[in-house]
Design a protein that fits this description.
This protein is α+β, with helices and mostly antiparallel strands. It contains 19 helices and 19 strands.
Length: about 650
């Protein structure tokens, strides 16, 4: 049995230290050790950088798990019960001067005077992908364990802090595709949240061009059927030292670690409950990309997909449903850092403004969720509707629905190059401004280049060519898109256009031809908890075409371009309350179109109900400003219900 095998089998710490002090040449990499003393790396900086580097580690805990630091001029080995004197052991240090690595040292004795004003940081290296592979029953990367694993600088920036800012460094292991689930669960069991990979799939999504050319360590080789799996690496600390350009610094060389006997490091990570065990799901095939989610979260998203896919109007939208599209879209959004939202369906083309009112509330709600997750959010809308959306966003901020104002953009179209220039910095596809586009109830371009409502009326004159942005996004690596709709004529529904043509009324004409990566079918919004009985006001006029529970006119309106002479609403459950009167009461004042009187209700009937979400919602005023104010109240009320405000 080799010495390294003895080390991994759990020799006493004193024996291992003795081997290290004797400078055994075969001891190169201790990252695979699972018991006894645990490996850690060190960073030595001037005392003036102590607070800044501590803050940087806290902000980037994944690649830089800080165990502790010493007082200036002292070494922390006694506190960690590690190797007694790293300055005279066989450990290897890299020396940095003004941010450049100028060489390696096995002893820091010649820098004793400078070390009096320096602080030593100790970083935890106890979790190892080799351990996870072994626990999952997978063969190790390098049975001899002589060299550190391959590590790569990415284009993913760490969170900067007080002079420290650098790209994330990752390490990789090729894993057979059918073993990904076992590996991820083993990683979680061994290392908890820290043990989970940060990326599974195409290296290019991290900015890694060639796995055969690592920045540190030896290259890895992917066999057919393997998927690259990436973990954050403590070698990120080396890039951090370079970024601060301090006159003098030291760090553990890759593969050369100290051994620390901290009891809390020896304790195994708490095993997650069965509901919290991670699952691996493929987001896309080209580029190859997998994501991780807890089993309980996956179940909730699938339950939600079932709830929103109801078809109370019997329009045939069940034929458009693609299983797990909502799950994949959600996971893809979780990886995004900057999201571009869009909405707007001017189906009421004889009114000003002509917007449906089911898209804006959902868009603002999604924007609020994304802001809460720390993501950048922007919106692109039709230029004619810019003032309307500015008012909606302004009130959403005032009432606390939105954390901050969402920037509003417009796009008038042109060449393919203009679409790419809109989406990317300086038009360069290597630096996209957004990494996910989401269209919610947005009019989509049909195969003939026109835009249609459900009754085949061409509304192209009211729609800006925002579709071009979704087409351009398909050609930009790392940019994904989602379309949310209910009838097949919405932007993004090109993914299910054949089903729209076969199963949706007028589908052969109105079907959107522009695809999104994910097509989410939302026939109705379940704003209630699934286990609760719906509140009375939500039982009024449930139309079910994407708007959901809506206080809409119970009978078709003569001035509704979508009305086709048949009743779409659910039965009224409130005695003597009609949707028409709810509409009249909530939106007083003259309209540009005639509003029918319900023959079944007395003219004096009134209702305090406010208008609700709906596919063909109530017309909200005569002038643009009046309707904008009405839509503001409409959006605010429903979004606040969603958030429980």
């Amino acid at each position: 049995m080799s010495l390294v095998s003895h080390l991994r089998s759990g020799l006493l710490p004193s024996v291992i230290r003795s081997c290290i002090r004797r400078s055994q040449p075969s001891i190169r990499n201790l990252s695979g050790m699972t018991r006894g003393p645990q490996p850690a790396s060190v960073v030595v900086l001037h005392r003036s950088l102590e607070a800044a580097f501590d803050s940087f580690c806290q902000a980037n805990h994944g690649p830089l798990p800080l165990l502790g630091r010493s007082e200036p001029g002292t070494w922390p080995w006694s506190a960690l019960d590690a190797v007694a004197d790293a300055r005279s052991s066989c450990l290897q240090f890299w020396i940095y001067k003004s941010g450049l690595c100028t060489g390696s040292l096995t002893s820091l004795e010649e820098y004793s005077e400078q070390l009096k004003d320096m602080v030593t940081f100790v970083l935890d290296c106890s979790f190892s992908p080799e351990e996870a592979c072994k626990a999952a029953g997978l063969p190790g990367r390098d049975p001899a364990g002589h060299w550190p694993a391959a590590a790569y600088k990415t284009t993913v920036p760490c969170s900067p802090s007080a002079g420290f800012g650098c790209p994330l460094v990752v390490t990789v292991r090729p894993i057979p595709q059918d073993q990904l689930g076992r590996l991820v669960q083993a990683s979680c069991t061994l290392g908890g949240e820290r043990g989970l990979p940060i990326h599974i799939g195409n290296p290019g999504l991290l900015g890694i061009k060639d796995l055969a050319r690592p920045d540190y360590g030896e290259p890895v080789t992917c066999q057919p059927g393997d998927v690259p799996v990436f973990w954050p690496s403590q070698l990120t600390s080396l890039e951090a030292i370079s970024s601060c350009q301090t006159p003098l610094a030291f760090a553990s060389a890759p593969g050369h670690t100290i051994l620390a006997d901290r009891r809390d490091m020896e304790a195994p990570a708490a095993r997650p409950s069965p509901e919290d065990m991670p699952e691996v799901h493929r987001i896309s095939q080209d580029p190859l990309h997998y994501s991780i989610a807890a089993k309980s979260a996956v179940k909730k998203i699938r339950d939600l997909e079932t709830l929103i896919a109801v078809d109370p109007g019997s329009r045939g939208i069940g034929h458009l449903l693609c299983q797990d599209e909502l799950l994949r879209a959600s996971l893809s959004l979780s990886h995004a850092s900057s999201v571009l939202l869009t909405t707007g369906f001017p189906t009421h083309f004889t009114h000003e403004p002509p917007e449906e009112n089911d898209g804006p509330p959902g868009t603002l709600a999604l924007g609020a969720f994304l802001q809460a997750l720390g993501k950048k959010v922007s919106m692109v809308v039709d230029r004619r509707a810019l003032d309307l959306h500015e008012k909606l966003i302004e009130e959403a901020v005032e009432q606390g629905v939105l954390k901050s104002r969402i920037p509003l953009l417009t796009y008038q179209g042109g060449s393919e190059g203009e679409a790419q220039a809109f989406l990317c910095e300086d038009g360069d596809p290597k630096t996209p401004r957004f990494d996910h586009l989401v269209a919610i109830e947005r009019a989509g371009r049909a195969a003939d280049g026109k835009y249609y409502n459900a009754r085949k009326v061409n509304i192209k004159h009211l729609v800006d060519p925002i579709d071009d942005l979704f087409l351009a996004a398909h050609k930009i690596p790392g940019v994904s898109s989602t379309g949310v709709g209910d009838g097949g004529n919405e932007l993004g529904m090109g993914k299910v256009k054949e089903a729209v043509r076969r199963h949706i009324r007028n589908g052969a004409v109105i079907a959107c031809d522009v695809e999104a990566d994910f097509a989410v079918i939302a026939g109705g919004d379940a704003l209630e908890h699934p286990d609760e009985a719906p509140r009375a006001q939500w039982c009024l006029g449930r139309r079910g075409h994407g708007g959901g529970w809506a206080a809409l006119p119970r009978h078709p309106r003569r001035d509704d371009p979508e009305a086709d002479g048949r009743h779409h609403g659910a039965p009224v459950t409130i005695a003597n309350v009609c949707g028409l009167h709810a509409y009249r009461e909530a939106m007083p004042g003259p309209r540009s179109g005639a509003v029918p009187q319900c023959p079944q209700c007395p003219a004096t009937t009134a209702s305090p109900l406010s208008p609700g979400l709906g596919h063909s919602g109530p017309f909200l005023g005569r002038r643009s400003t009046d309707r904008a104010l009405g839509l503001q109240k409409h959006v605010s009320g429903h979004v606040r219900r969603i958030f429980g405000l």
